Amino acid sequence: DVKVTQSSRYLVKRTGEKVFLECVQDMDHENMFWYRQDPGLGLRLIYFSYDVKMKEKGDIPEGYSVSREKKERFSLILESASTNQTSMYLCASSTTDRKNTEAFFGQGTRLTVV
Amino acid sequence: QKEVEQNSGPLSVPEGAIASLNCTYSDRGSQSFFWYRQYSGKSPELIMFIYSNGDKEDGRFTAQLNKASQYVSLLIRDSQPSDSATYLCAVIGGTALIFGKGTTLSVSS
Fold first, then answer.
1. Could you give the C-alpha distances from A32 to A56, B43, B88, B96, B104, in angstroms and in order?
2. Do A91 and A23 meet the contact criterion of CB atoms below 8 Å apart?
3. Other CB atoms within 10 A of residue B76 CB
4. What is the mean pLDDT of each run of 10 residues along chain B (109 residues)?
5. How far is B17 from chain A (nearest CA, A)?
6. A112 in contact with B, Cβ within 8 Å
7. Closest partner CB to A43 (pick from B8, B32, B99)
8. pLDDT digits (tens, 9 = 90+) for A43-84
9. Do B24 and B90 contact (CB within 8 A), yes or no?
10. Interface subset of A 71-110, CB within 8 angstroms of B
11. Is B9 helix (H, G, I), strand (E, B) or coil?
C-alpha cells in the first residue's frame, strides 16, 4: 500500500513562529503536493514538486515556501505564521503516468495559529 | 488560471436513488479526470478516474466524460447512506492536480 505520512496530526503555533510541516511517501513517486483545505474553499494547491529540488507555485503560495532535498520528503514551511494560515494541510504524492496519476493523501495536519 | 467548477450542494437523495454529480473544467488540454470522496474529518480517497470520452463503470459508480463540452460527471446508482460525503472533482492541469470545491451528497434512509 502507498503510504503518505505527515509528521503531525495537530499543531498549535504562535503568530510569527516559523513552522515546518513534513511529508514522507514510500512509493518512489515523482510528484508531491501541498494543499490547504478550508470550509467553502475546497482544496487549494499551495506548492508542488515534480522532482528533487524542483518546485512550482500553486494557486496560493504567498506566505509559504517548500523544500524537497530527497525524493521521498516534501516539506512545507510557513516563514512567519499568521492566524489566516490556520487550516487543514494535506500532502499528496503521485506518479508521472499522465493517464493514471492517482494522488494518495496523507492524514492531514490541522494547524492552529494563535 | 485553470479552474474546476462544481455545485457545492448539498445534494440530497433518498436511499436507492441515483445521485448525479457534475463538474466542468476550463483547461481544454486536460487529459485526466478524477473523482475523490472525502468523509468528514478524513483525507480524500480516489473513487474513479477517466481519460477517454464516454462512460466508465465500476460497481455502482459511473464516470462520464465529454471533452468537447469540458464536462465530467459521476453517477452513483442505488445510493446508500454510507455514500454521504463530499465528492471532489480533480483535473490534471499540466503536472499539478487541481480540485474543485466539492459537492456534498446526503443520502437519507
1. 11, 15, 19, 9, 26
2. yes
3. 23
4. 85 97 92 92 91 91 94 97 96 83 95
5. 26
6. no
7. B99
8. 999 999 999 989 999 989 999 999 999 999 999 999 999 999
9. no
10. 90, 92, 94, 96, 98-103, 105-108
11. coil
